[in-house]
Design goal:
By secondary structure, the protein is α+β, with helices and mostly antiparallel strands. The chain is built from one helix and four strands, in the order H-E-E-E-E.
Length: 88
């Protein structure tokens, strides 16, 4: 039955190609989605009486949201550059 041997080789080749494709997709996703950590300042000093509720990082800024709802923007050196207070 040469047809069955040919079919077996065809199915094996298809399985190998599918495994290779899955490996390529997984490697591409891993390389593209792996987190790159921003350059963080050595220290950030919050204003007196403020506590950090959330911290996020932008390309050139570190943004801290305080417990009172103030938004503090720090530069790469850890210096406070801008403060935004919520409207009352």
């Amino acid at each position: 039955m040469p047809e069955l041997a040919w079919l077996r080789r065809l199915v094996t080749a298809l399985a190998l190609v599918m495994m290779l494709g899955i490996a390529v997709v997984a490697a591409t996703l891993w390389l593209r989605l792996s987190p790159s950590l921003p350059e963080l300042p050595e220290a950030i000093t919050l204003p007196k009486g403020e506590t950090a509720a959330a911290v996020t990082f932008a390309r050139d800024w570190t943004v801290v949201v305080t417990g009172r709802g103030n938004i503090l923007l720090f530069d790469r050196g850890g210096r406070l550059r801008q403060s935004v207070t919520p409207d009352s």
